[in-house]
Amino acid sequence: xxxxxxxxxxxxxxxxxxxxxxxxxxxxxxxxxxxxxxxxxxxxxxxxxxxxxxxxxxxxxxxxxxxxxxxxxxxxxxxxxxxxxxxxxxxxxxxxxxxxxxxxxxxxxxxxxxxxxxxxxxxxxxxxxxxxxxxxxxxxxxxxxxxxxxxxxxxxxxxxxxxxxxxxxxxxxxxxxxxxxxxxxxxxxxxxxxxxxxxxxxxxxxxxxxxxxxxxxxxxxxxxxxxxxx
Length: 230
Ligand SMILES: C[S@@+](CC[C@H](N)C(=O)[O-])C[C@H]1O[C@@H](n2cnc3c(N)ncnc32)[C@H](O)[C@@H]1O
Hints:
Layout: H1 24-37, E1 38-39, E2 59-63, H2 69-77, E3 82-86, H3 90-102, E4 108-111, H4 115-121, E5 128-134, H5 152-161, E6 162-172, H6 175-186, E7 191-194, H7 209-216, E8 222-228
Parallel strand pairs: 1-4, 2-3, 2-5, 3-4, 5-6
Antiparallel strand pairs: 6-8, 7-8
Helix pairs in contact: 1-3
The protein binds S-adenosylmethionine.
């Protein structure tokens, strides 16, 4: 029998590079609009928001925005906040670039890089007023847990680039990952869990594309909101 075997996963990265399903429109948007909304990580040493955003304001980081619908909806609701989206999936970025232009949204910039690299190598301390990690890839198999993005090392690096009182908003529809995230955040001192209706930034998380898939499968969704007290 000709059974297809997946190649072994060789690194602990939280993602697998996929270039698939790049529509012509997304590819064109990438080419035309990247200079306007995109930030090349290779071009920066230390990220400085003043160089990229039209107005000063608190800066929120959306890690792994996927199709970006929730990021864009939030950015439209809150023109007083600047949003930096980071994603490794280029077709998703192409789609976001197109929507940014269509809806004339000026408070979002995007980067095509591993979030871990960005926060460890290119971000100054005390920069972010908030971080959203909504529906990170759950990596359900035990042997893949080391690939999960939200774990102690990541949270500890985030705490360096977050301001005191900044908010960390995690969400997942995979309950074992919710517990895993709680355990790992608890390993990093100074994060205090808040009730979900106590977010000081008064942000309402829009339903995300990935969440909708989970809900259709009957998954329960959990939000975890933390405040960093440095
Ligand atoms: C399950 S999807 C969720 C997307 C979106 N937040 C949503 O809820 O619809 C997770 C996303 O995180 C991205 N991702 C995974 N690891 C990443 C990393 N280290 N840096 C940036 N993006 C990452 C993946 O490419 C994927 O698009």
